[in-house]
Amino acid sequence: MRTIAILGATGSIGTQALDIVRRHPDRFCADCLTAGRSAEKLFELVREFRPKVAALAVEPEVIPEDVRFCQWFFGPDSTVQALLAAKSMDALCAIVGIAGLDAVWHALDVCQRVLLANKEALVTGGELVMRKAAEKGIPMLPVDSEHSAIFQCLQARQGNPVRRLLLTCSGGALRDWSKRDIYNATVRDVLAHPTWNMGGKITVDCATRVNKGLEIIEAHHLFGMPAEKIEVVIHPQSVVHSMVEFEDGAVLAQLGRPDMRGPIGYAMGFPERVPYGATPLDFAALGHLDFAAPDNDRFPALPMAVEALKAGGSAPVILNGANEAAVGAFLRGQIPFGRIPEILRDALDALPPSPIRSIADVYEADGKARAFADAKLGIRNEE
Ligand code: NAD
Ligand code: MG
User: Fold this and answer.
1) What pLDDT score was predicted for residue 382?
2) How far apart are CA 26 and CA 24, in angstroms?
3) What's the CA gap between 383 and 55, in Å, rounded?
4) For ligand 1, atom 14: residue with the closest CA
């Protein structure tokens, strides 16, 4: 039986992880559940899963009688407090954005393994986080589907060097749109992802292709590969989840249905596989799998992420911070979709990269990027 803290339990990844717990009560116990603002949803999950510890990043108006049996933490530091109190064996880090970095950092102090969905934690704090994980001997098990696929392919590596990592990309909701239509895409257009059903922020990131850029940076940190050896290939069906090429030209791929319970379950059960009720892939029904090169003219944010990775220091933090600010503004209806890559360009040009020596340096660079983006977009931040 493995105990697991599910950080971001009410989200897309969190609820799918809990579905796996629900199917395998003999293997997993979710003894710590945390969420940001969704109090009602978290109370519901606490009633069902009966964790030891729970946390909400805001103060709820009322705490229902029937959820008071567990130890509660409230407020901005509540996730970390809950994590430290629960001391679960594993932590599934599924908070969205840099808001999840602290949780990843502290999970490395108390847990045996970190199951990482929160890619922004690696994009912003990647070097520090990976160094701490290595020093402490804590495995970082990827949950992002592409990275899980690569991790699975690497199980067959047998010490051989890797020539390239090939990240597949569905193309997002606007894959076949013209440049002009992309600029004016609405929130509704963008949230209609063709193959994956995910949280709002990552779905917008898929449409801009910022997500794939963040994933290149994530792969760089997880697998120690330079940017030059990580490539993106558009694959609309989202069946090939990613690939690894070796020096003899052999390419290993991992395939499966586009269902996040696959990679979530693989991380939770590693090295054992965890069934979750997926129907087998029907290759005859699929008929064909398509691949294409990414179009960086219509989707300029992807090469910007590579540029930020190569620039190093705080550049990826600046890209991420400006993106989080811009995505928030787009989802609130304050800016057109096309402003998102423009603001990333402006932020990278205006804010020179500085060295990142500590988590405090990460937050400082993030703050600057957000302030820059908000000012440029004419947004007054009341939070
Ligand atoms: P989501 O928005 O559906 O859920 C986010 C969760 O984090 C919620 O439980 C929310 O309450 C919590 N949260 C948000 N802000 C918080 C804060 N300040 N403090 C504490 N908790 C907070 O997001 P998601 O789609 O589940 O994505 C989670 C992470 O996993 C992201 O980093 C995303 O990039 C990554 N990821 C998601 C998918 C997917 O299929 N959804 C796939 C790959 C990677
Ligand atoms: Mg992914």
Assistant:
1) 59
2) 5
3) 20
4) 36
Per-residue pLDDT tens for 148-170? 999 999 999 999 999 999 999 99
Dist. CA 237–CA 305, nearest whole Å = 24
- CA of 198, nearest ligand number: 1
Pocket test for ligand 1, best of 7, 10, 12 (most atoms within 8 A of CB): 12
Q: Which residue's CA is the closest to the ligand 1 atom numbered 2?
A: 199
Between the CA of 145 and the centroid of ligand 2 the distance, in Å, is 5
Give start and end residues of each alpha helix (H) in the chain: 12-23, 39-49, 78-86, 101-110, 119-136, 145-154, 179-183, 187-191, 200-208, 210-223, 261-269, 283-286, 301-311, 315-331, 339-350, 359-377
CA 366 to the chain's CA centroid: 17
Cα-to-centroid distance, 377 and ligand 1 (Å) = 24
115: β partners: 92, 141
Span 281-292, pLDDT tens digits: 999 999 999 999
Distance (Å) from CA 93 to ligand 2 centroid:
15
Confidence of residue 195 (pLDDT cuts 50, 70, 90): confident
